[in-house]
Amino acid sequence: MYNIFAVALNLHDHNTYDGVFHNQRERYTRFKHNLPYKADSYAHQEQLNTNDYELNNEFVKDYFKKQESLDGWSSVVLGFSMTVGGIRMCKDILPKEVLDYKPKELWDHYYKNGIYFIDHHQSHATYAYINSGFEESDIVAIDGIGYKFRCIFVDRNKKIIDLSKELPIGWLWNQMSKLAGFGSLGASKLMGLVGYGKFSQYYYDVFETIISGDIKEKKYKIHELINIEKYGRQDLAFTLQKFTNDKIKEHIYPLKTCDNLCLAGGVIYNGYLNEEFTKHYKNVYIPPAVGDEGQALGVYQHADYVLNKNKHKTETFAGIKHILNKPTGFIESLSLNSVAQEIANGKIVGWYQGKSESGNRALGNRCILADPRRKDIKQVINDTIKDREDFRPFAPAVLEEHYQEYFDTNSPSPYMSRICKVKSDKVPGITHVDNTARIQTVNKQFNEKFYNLINEFYKITGIPMLLNTSFNCHEPIVESPEHAIRTFKRTALDLLVMNNYLVRK
Questions:
Q1: Whole-number Å distance between alpha carbons of 413 and 401
Q2: What angle do CA 430, 435, 438 make, to 5 degrees?
Q3: Whole domain around residue 470: which residue ranges?
Q4: How many structural domains is the chain composed of?
Q5: Is there a contact between 199 and 242 (Cβ–Cβ < 8 Å)?
Q6: What pTM did the predictor assign?
Q7: Sign of CA dihedral 430, 433, 435, 437
Q8: Average pLDDT, whole number, for the chain?
Q9: Would you say 430 and 368 are in contact if contact means Cβ atoms under 8 Å apart?
Q10: Are 88 and 213 in the same domain?
C-alpha cells in the first residue's frame, strides 16, 4: 500500500503562481486570482476525507518530517503534475530532497525515487472519472494550456486521443477575452455576453483561420484579424459560443464509445457547452472543482487508482467547518420558515453554513440568496452588493424534483455547471436576456439544510427555487465568520444567516 502525496503546480499570466485548490487557498489569503501570490496545494491519502484542508507550507514540511526516510520512497509516492513553468516555483513548497532537479532532469527521471508524474490533463480526466461513479465512460479534458496537451479525449478503454490541434478552444477563449477587455482569465465574463449577441459570419470565418495550423507558429496577429470596434463584443461572444459548440460536435461526437461522459478542465465552466453535451450523451458528469482547483485531487486519485487500485471519491464541501459560539447583539435563533418569509418579502440574505464548497461555485454553504420572482433583483444585487457588470446573470437553486417544470433540460445539474432554457415567466430574476439560466438542482441528500430552506420558500410562494450567487464582493468567496460579517456590514445585504443564527443590522 503506497502512501500518496499529490501536488499540482500551475503558472498563469503575470507570473501568477496558482496551486490547485486555489479556491480554498485564495479564501485563506483573501487575494483574488491573477495576483502575484504563492499558493500551496496538495492532496494526500491520510486527509482526503477529513473536515479541514489546511493548505500551508508548514503542513507540507511536517508531513515529510514524519516519514522515516526519503531514501527509496518505499512507502511515500509523490504524485506530481504541472503546467508550463510550474516547476520553477515549486521549491518553496516541497523539501529540497524531493525537488532538487532541473526541469529536464525531472522529465527524464520522473519514475525514479518515487516520483509519479502525470500530465495536467490526465489529472483533470481522472478527477472527473473517479468521482462520477461510472464503471465505464468517455472523458473529455479541455483547457487553455498544459504541459503536453490542451485537450484530450479518453474512451471507455482508457485510450487517450490528443485533440490539442483540433480543439484549442480554451486558448481561443482566453485570446478573445483579452481582446474584449476582460483579460486572459475573463472567459466567464465574455460568456455573459453570449445572450446579447447574434451570429457573425465574419467572426466565424476569422475563428476558423485562427485555429488552423499550429498555434505556436502563427505568423499573423490576432488583434489585426478581430475587428471588435466594428462588429462588437456581443456578436463576438455569441459567435464564439456557436463556434465552440460546432467544433465539439465535429471532433468529439464521432469518438463516442458509450453513453456516459465525464468532463473536466477550465473550459468546462462553459455552461452553454455543457448543456450541448447532454444532447449527445445519456449521462454527463461534471465535478464541482472542474478547473485547476481540483487538480491536486486528480493527481492523488490517478496515483491511488493505478498504484493501490482504489477509487476514492472526494467531498463537495471540503473547507474548514467553523464552530460558532452564541453571538450577542441583534441575533435571533434560526427559523428556516422565517428566513424564507424574509426572502419572499424582498430581503437579500447572506447565507453562511458549515464547510465551504470545493470549487468556484456557491452550492449552498457560501451564498447570497434572494427572491427569483423580482424583475429588478439582478440590478439591485449588482449595484448594491456585488458591484459587478450588469450583463452577468445570477443562478437559480431549484429543488431537484421540480427542475423540469421550469427548465428545458433532461437531467439534474447539482454543481451549477449547465446553462439551459427557462420555460416559465414566473422567475425573471434568474432569467438571462436570452431566456437561459445556469441551474443548480438541489436534493435533500446533497445539502439538507439548503434544501429545507428552498422548500420553505416553495411552501410560501409556490416557487421551488431561490436566486443564488456567491457570497463575496470584489474578494474571494467568504471563508470565515469574520469574512462573512465584514461583507455583510459593508454591503446592502439585509440579513446574515450563520449556522443556526440570524443577524440583523
A1: 12
A2: 50
A3: 331-504
A4: 3
A5: yes
A6: 0.86
A7: negative
A8: 81
A9: no
A10: no
